[in-house]
Design brief:
It is a single chain. By secondary structure, this protein is α/β, with parallel strands linked by helices. The chain has 23 helices and 13 strands. Helix 1 runs antiparallel to helix 5, helix 5 packs across helix 7 and helix 10 runs parallel beside helix 12. It is elongated and about 90 Å long.
């Protein structure tokens, strides 16, 4: 069986019976929503096997009447023609605002016949007049099993890489996935191949201003500390395997990472996509509220996310979008998003971050919407050593050449972002002196920086108190850190 035939067989298990049931019930007009005309033709043909099939397009007219290129006249002519034939009209949607076309469709619906008129189009844009006479049926995109079969026809790869490529391609049409796999085949490493497949997914999100596909290049190894959170994430990878469902595991729903500013919340959210081998999509609540209808915008964004699932949905500083201003618009968006989080069935891992935890509504953080709520505290001495080493390596320096532990020993109030800023400032100093970076450059830069935890001591203390009782610590090494002690 070819990959295309396998695709048709899998989708047909749900789509074909649905078309047959609607036709048997007497629905006069079926609107099949899809970009994949070839797959639609094959499956509709299965649903109405044995019927004579006549197709219409604006460029070629009917299969049996090339002159019938005007859509209204074509529908009127079809109503007078072979009543038993299955008639497919492609891309009628640009004319559905035309009163003549709408009237012709209503006349078709009013005449009794055994076979419905099937409209195949990329969008469901039926006018109000047809609400009672037409049913919209979306053709599902290829599922993981279909894409796995397709991938096997394009190139060979390891089992792990294969699973990652298939997950990355879910949400693409069959032809888009084929092109993505062929492009991926030219890359030398599995990571490069996966990045190319995910890049091809960008088009599915381009039309929604509230969503952005992020090219995440952050790995967990590039984040210092947070060992508990990182171990938890690595364990969640196993739950995406097919055997996990049979074992009784649900797909992971996500995590909320709260805590002190500059301590790696956004970085670990980005790294999540790399750990799970999934695309990273960022939801921008500013764009949601900038839309003419914020409630419609959030519904459309969530539908788009589910269409390209499995993905990691990154919601940075979620309290700014859902913390609430008390107005009705915020309440509607908040309610719509909470309902989606609770009821979603698609494999969407939500990675949300929050700084101002006191603004978070209790409904948001309860179990069932997130698998876990983590608190990221200021780094411990051991974590500061790791963080400084990460930033030195990132800038081409060997941490072993520096007295890293001594440099960070007295930086008790510092966040990871402030350690990074120290390295950056020290490099500027060294470059200005026309010498290589030294310990003294790092110490001098540290003396000039006043950490946020010192400037806003009361706010940081309140945040840490919240985290002690309401969230799971992201790091195990906490006994040696007492920010406000002696």
């Amino acid at each position: 069986m070819t990959a295309q035939a396998s695709s048709a067989a899998d989708v047909g298990a749900e789509f074909v019976p649905e078309l047959r049931a609607l036709a048997a019930a007497g629905v006069p007009i079926l609107c099949v929503v899809t970009h994949e005309e070839r797959r639609a033709r094959a499956l509709i043909g299965q649903a109405f096997e044995g019927k004579r099939v006549l197709e219409w397009t604006a460029t070629r007219g009917w299969s049996d009447d090339a002159s019938a290129r005007d859509p209204a006249a074509a529908i009127e002519g079809a109503a007078r023609g072979d009543r038993a034939a299955l008639r497919l009209m492609f891309d009628v949607h640009p004319w559905l605002a035309d009163a003549r076309v709408v009237r012709a469709l209503r006349d078709w619906a009013a005449s009794a016949r055994d076979t419905p008129l099937v409209l195949v189009m990329p969008v469901a844009s039926l006018p109000l007049e047809l609400d009672r006479d037409a049913r919209v049926v979306a053709l599902p995109l290829p599922n993981a099993r279909m894409l796995s079969t397709l991938l096997d026809t394009e190139f060979e790869t390891s089992e792990t890489a294969r699973d990652a490529l298939v997950r990355g391609a879910v949400g693409l049409t069959f032809d888009e996935a084929r092109r993505a796999f062929r492009l991926a085949a030219s890359h030398a490493t599995p990571d490069e191949a996966l990045a190319r497949v995910i890049h091809e997914k960008r088009g599915a999100l381009r039309r929604n201003a509230c969503l952005e596909l992020i090219d995440s290049d952050v790995t967990l190894d590039e984040i210092g500390g947070l060992d508990v959170l990182k171990s938890w994430l690595r364990a969640r990878v196993l739950a995406f395997a097919e055997g996990a469902r049979a074992f009784g595991l649900d797909e992971p729903r996500g995590m909320l990472v709260s805590g002190v500013q500059g301590c790696g919340k956004s970085l670990v959210s980005k790294a999540t996509a790399r750990v799970l081998s999934l695309p990273l999509v960022r939801l921008d609540f500013a764009e949601v509220f900038a839309a003419p209808s914020a409630e419609h915008a959030i519904h459309e964004a969530m539908r788009t996310v589910e269409a390209v699932a499995p993905v990691v949905l990154w919601v940075d500083e979620i309290e700014k979008g859902l913390g609430g201003s008390g107005d009705a618009r915020h309440a509607r968006v908040f309610g719509a998003f909470l309902t989606w989080m609770q009821e979603r069935r698609a494999a969407v891992f939500v990675a949300a971050t929050a700084n101002e935890v006191e603004r978070l509504p209790p409904e948001l953080v309860r179990r069932g919407r997130f698998d876990e709520v983590f608190f990221v505290d200021l780094p411990s001495p051991t974590e500061r050593v790791q963080i400084l080493a990460v930033h030195l390596r990132r800038r081409g320096r060997d941490p072993a050449a520096y007295r890293v532990a001594d440099i960070v020993r007295d930086l008790d109030h510092w966040s990871g972002a402030e350690v990074e800023q120290m390295v950056s400032s020290a490099l500027f100093r060294a470059y200005a002196d026309h010498v290589e970076l030294s310990d003294e450059h790092l110490r001098a830069a540290a003396r000039e920086l006043v950490p946020l935890a010192t400037l806003y001591e009361e706010q940081i203390q309140a945040l840490r108190v919240w985290g002690q009782t309401r969230a799971r610590r992201a790091s195990a090494d906490r006994k040696t850190l007492d920010l406000f002690g002696d």
